[in-house]
């Protein structure tokens, strides 16, 4: 196994752990302030690992590119590995806004988008990495 192969799979397993923790928080309803803060932190970890594992995966596939979050996500869509780049890019924007939201007001305005657009995109990305053999789980979701 090459170092790139191992790297993307290791990062995919870290993504899986963050994703599963975020899933747990996303399933909660009527969050108090502490729970909301936990959800935001879990989201930040997960979206950060999402683009990084995509970067490692694309490098494993032989792509050479500027490894910025936006360029990575756009390349993954241009290369037809994903078809939900905009939702992930919006998720990065939400992360940037929430990481500097000390009053909780931005979460109130972005929560619906996070739950209805970004979260489903992260689920699709998780399923993609499961299908590529980068994670351990296979039956987390029952459609």
Question: Helix and strand layout, with pairings?
Answer:
Layout (H helix, E strand, L loop, with lengths): L2 H24 L6 H28 L8 H10 L6 H14 L6 H27 L12
Quick recap:
This protein is an all-alpha fold and 143 residues long.
Please describe what this structure looks like:
It contains five helices and no strands. The protein is mainly α and 143 residues long. It has one domain: Nucleotidyltransferases  domain 2 (Four Helix Bundle (Hemerythrin (Met), subunit A)), CATH 1.20.120.330. Helix 1 (3-26) runs antiparallel to helix 2 (33-60). The radius of gyration is 15 Å and the shape is globular. The model has no long low-confidence stretch (mean pLDDT 90).
Describe the biggest sheet?
A: none
Query: How many distinct folded domains?
Result: 1
Question: Could you name the CATH homologous superfamily?
Answer: Nucleotidyltransferases  domain 2
Give me the secondary-structure category. Answer: mainly alpha
User: What's the number of extended β-strand segments?
Assistant: 0
Shape: globular
Classify the fold: give the CATH topology.
Answer: Four Helix Bundle (Hemerythrin (Met), subunit A)
Q: What CATH architecture label applies?
A: Up-down Bundle
Strand content: under 5%
Number of separate helices: 5
Helix content: over 70%
Averaged pLDDT: 90
